[in-house]
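Sample intake sheet
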Amino acid sequence: MKRALAIIATVTAAAGALTACTDEQAYCVDLAKYAAKAVDVDPQKPVDYVKILDEAKKLQESAPKDVKDDWGVVVTFAEKAKAAGSDRVELAKLSKETGAVMTAYKNISSQAKDSCKVDLPALN
């Protein structure tokens, strides 16, 4: 009986250690998941940002403060793209705003590589 209790205690402690990660570690895990989905996003096409909107919102919430505003730029742009839908005129207007988004994305990518050891898809 003592051995069974010791095994249960060990397993419980190990499970607690595995689930108790820092906010930054959780952000890095989410960022790695995002990176896998963002491969199909062309940063020059506003409509593609809709594909990553939900993930970008989650990352904005959990992002370290040095890239939180950059995620805000990406999320805002993605929301505008979603609102534009298939309206070519609105999408053309948004295309003129990609410079700020690409700058924000570069900041996010640098932080991801330095802090999380995650390579985000390159900008085209």
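Comment: The helical segments are 2-19, 23-37, 53-62, 65-84, 88-95, 98-116. The first helix runs from residue 2 to 19.
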